[in-house]
Write a structure and sequence with these properties.
The chain is mostly helical and about 220 residues long. It is built from eleven helices and no strands.
């Protein structure tokens, strides 16, 4: 299928899912992991309008759809990573540990990420990679949290290789046939990771992606 048709299909589906967000919210279908829905939507709105545009790690149509139905592109880990990253943009003091200190914004969501992360490390998942990359971006922004950011980034990069996301071919995607949306999400995740400051160093030391490029540069996701 021509790339133009694929793009049009993705845009059309994104528009449809954008309309369904309001419907699902009104019907109480969205999973906020215990956060008051109005606050949850406030933080999600900040994410889509701020941090999301910097790296495009998350894919809004799939995330919000699966937030309502428990699908594969939503997880509580990713949700809380988004909450944490968006909290620094919020003027609301209830997201801060110290009301007048913006650097304490999102502390409760960071604690929740730590709780959920342990169980998510047994198997590589795209939502776990996305959560780790969102946390990496947020922690690098704090300036004095670079050690934690590097650790999260390293885990994300290893999972990318484990899932074959660093190579744009179905043979590395496992036995499941990929849809156009699946491919779009995988490419976004790869290039979001590529934009991380630690990406070249971690991958160069691991040699996986450099080997793939030398072997066939066309296999790198477009």
């Amino acid at each position: 299928m021509p790339d133009e048709w694929i793009e049009r299909g993705l845009v059309a589906e994104a528009a449809r899912q954008r309309q369904l967000e309001t419907v699902n919210f009104r019907h109480g279908k969205l999973e906020f992991d215990g956060v008051e829905p109005e606050l949850g939507m406030h933080l999600l709105s900040l994410h889509w309008n701020r941090q999301h545009h910097s790296f495009l790690t998350t894919y809004r149509p799939a995330f919000m759809r699966d937030m309502a139905c428990g699908g594969p592109y939503f997880s509580k880990l990713l949700l809380n990573a988004i909450y944490f990253g968006a909290s620094k943009f919020s003027p609301r003091r209830e997201v801060r540990r110290v009301a007048d200190d913006v650097r304490t914004a999102g502390w409760q969501f960071r604690q929740r990420v730590r709780e959920l992360l342990g169980g998510a490390l047994d198997k590589s998942e795209i939502t776990t990679i996305q959560a780790l990359l969102v946390m990496t971006n947020s922690l690098f922004a704090l300036g004095d949290e670079r050690s934690a950011a590097w650790l999260y980034a390293g885990l994300a990069f290893r999972m990318i290789v484990d899932l074959g996301i660093h190579v744009d071919t179905p043979a590395f995607a496992g036995s499941r046939r990929l849809s156009d949306e699946d491919r779009e999400i995988r490419r976004r995740v790869f290039w979001a990771a590529f934009g991380e400051p630690s990406f070249p160093i971690v991958f160069q030391s691991a040699n996986e992606i450099t080997f793939s490029r030398r072997q066939n540069p066309k296999l790198v996701p477009r």
